[in-house]
Design a protein that fits this description.
- By secondary structure, the protein is mostly helical.
- The chain has one domain.
- It is built from six helices and no strands.
- The radius of gyration is 19 Å and the shape is elongated.
- The termini are far apart.
- 16% of the residues are buried.
Length: 115
């Protein structure tokens, strides 16, 4: 979505393209899109309604932040670019923590073999 939003398309087009992707989260964006287009809800309310039905906290928080960004008047491109940066940083941090843990377990295993 962040890559698509860099061209500054409309919110409708971003969601139309997002729901055609083969990702697990597309189900939620499809619900938002249907609530907005077929039921006449505004996007902020649609995002919040769908977020309240989501079980996964990360997806729920993302949908609520998206609704907040729309309310605040932040462009979709800026919001999605920031979200992509945050997700990337979280992934990198988790990866480094995993490497550190692996190194400690390796040291512990080596100590066991030596003793």
């Amino acid at each position: 979505m962040a890559a698509l939003a860099t061209g500054s398309p409309s919110r409708d087009l971003i969601l139309e393209r997002a729901i055609t992707q083969d990702f697990k989260t597309c189900v939620y964006f499809r619900r938002v899109y249907l609530l907005a287009k077929r039921m006449g809800f505004d996007y902020v309310r649609a995002f919040r309604l769908v977020a309240n039905k989501v079980g996964a906290d990360t997806v729920k928080n993302h949908l609520l932040r998206f609704a907040g960004a729309i309310t605040a008047g932040v462009s979709e491109a800026d919001f999605l670019a920031q979200e992509a940066r945050v997700e990337r940083e979280q992934y990198i941090s988790g990866y480094h923590r995993s490497l550190e843990t692996l190194a400690k377990w390796g040291d512990a295993y080596a100590a066991l073999l030596v003793s």
